[in-house]
Structure formats: structure tokens, C-alpha cells
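Lab notebook, bench 4. The sequencing result for the construct came back, and we need a structural model before the next group meeting so we can plan mutations. Quick request posted to the team channel:

Model the 3D structure of this chain.
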Amino acid sequence: MAKVNYNELSNAPRNNQSDGNNYPVKFFNLKNGEDAIVRILIDSPDDFDIRTVHSVKMDGWQYGRNVNCIMENGDSRTCPLCVKGEKLIQKLYIKLLRYTTTPDGKIEVTPMVWERNRFDKTFGTQPLANHISSYGPLSDIICRISRSGEGLNTVYTPTFGLNVMPNSKAIYRDDLYVKDTSLFGNFDVLGVSILDKNYSELSHFAQTGVFPQRDTTQTPTDNGVGTTHSVASGSTYSAPAQNNFASTANQYETVQPRTTTTTADAMPWGRSDEQFSRPRRY
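Done. Here's the predicted structure in C-alpha cell form:
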């Protein structure tokens, strides 16, 4: 699966299709009426983590699962799910530091990832690029994200600059709301929120609607989490490594967190965090 370069895609047309464990990372979500205090760890478009995936239906998953696309050089024949006609989606994964206030008045910081569609009207690549032009590196800015509405009527509203606004900078101090990017370690969404499947496994799924069982052994990985390394039954052929997806852009449309705490005098916007096992689709 390719990690896509934003600058190579910024002028590409959009089609009519709709849309180890030492560093535990949680998935960000808000309920209707909630808000959160965060830092968005994106300082330039080069930091955009854009992944090309297939969204497939799977038993036990209401919203389906994202699976890596292994298409190479724009040739859809190299990916069994492309051959089957499963639509391609470009997802943007945003790293956040979320701040909550504990009952004893300390600020707790949790590393989180937010899954958005690349073309999201508020937190897609173009709006975020505009925010970077307006505010500079977003990791230097403390932001409130508020949610209103449900389903397709969901709206996320950002308020940037809480640590620089005259009426709030005394509260949202950088020494209290610390920017500790080391909490993410080597975390990668591939193999966590995106299923990492080889050619044989994707072929099996395309034919049967289920992935083959694996002979598994637990081995350490370099993506920041402990994942299962395995070999699927059946054919062992895997499609070659991918290169550039820019030429095909027109086809697209848990454990407790490691925390850093500091005492605060008054933090009116803090709220207890809630764990989510996977990202939502809206």
C-alpha cells in the first residue's frame, strides 16, 4: 500500500465516486456536542499521511474495514481488489495530542490518530493546507475541535490559537499543554487501522469474501505496536512493491495511554477521555 505524497496529488482531478506497545496510540473521536483540546501534529503538507485503501465489508464490523491497496504503477491488474472493482479511497491520518484534565487538576496528554477522508471539507488536506498558510506550523498551536450533528450531518469546528489568544493564553500554556511527539514512537496505521494483506490474501478475499486464516507467531515490528507476522495458506506470490500513485489519482475518490501530567490552576475545557477501538468513518 502506498503512502501518497500530497504535493503530487494537489492538482490531480477528483472523480465522482463517494466517498511496539511501548507507544500505545488511540483513535480520536467525538460524540455529538463534545469538544476536545488538541495539538495537530502537522507543520507542512509534507506531513500529510495519505493512504490509498479499499473499504470492504466484514462480519462484525458495522462500517467495514480499510484494507491496503497493492496496485503498482497504475495497473489495477496487480491488485485483486481493484480487479474485483472495489472502490479506492484516499484516507488522511492525522496525528493529534489530546489534552484532558484529571480530577486532581492535572493535564493528561494522549497520542491519538484521527482518520479523515482526504477530501473532508474541514479537516481534509486542502483545509489543513489553508490553516498552515494562516497559522504556520499547527503543532505550535493549541486547538479546540467541537462536534455537532450526527451521521452525514456531522460538523467538526476548529478554533485555533488558544495558546496565543489574549483571553486564553494564560490558561493554555505551552508548559502545561506539552508537545511531546515522542509518545507516538514508530507508530504506523498500516497493520492497525488498515489491514495489511498480501496478494494471496487479497485474492482469497476477492473470491470468498473472507480472508484466509494465518499460521501466526507474535513478532516485534517497527510500526510502534506489536502485530502478528504470518504467512497465509495457499499461494505465496505477492505483488511487487509499489511506486508512485500520482498517475492513478483520478481513480480515487488497547491499552492505557502513556501520559505526561502537569498541574494546572484551572482548566475549564478538560473532559475525561473515552477509548475507541477503531476510527469512525465520519
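The chain has one domain: 3-263.
Will bring this to the meeting.
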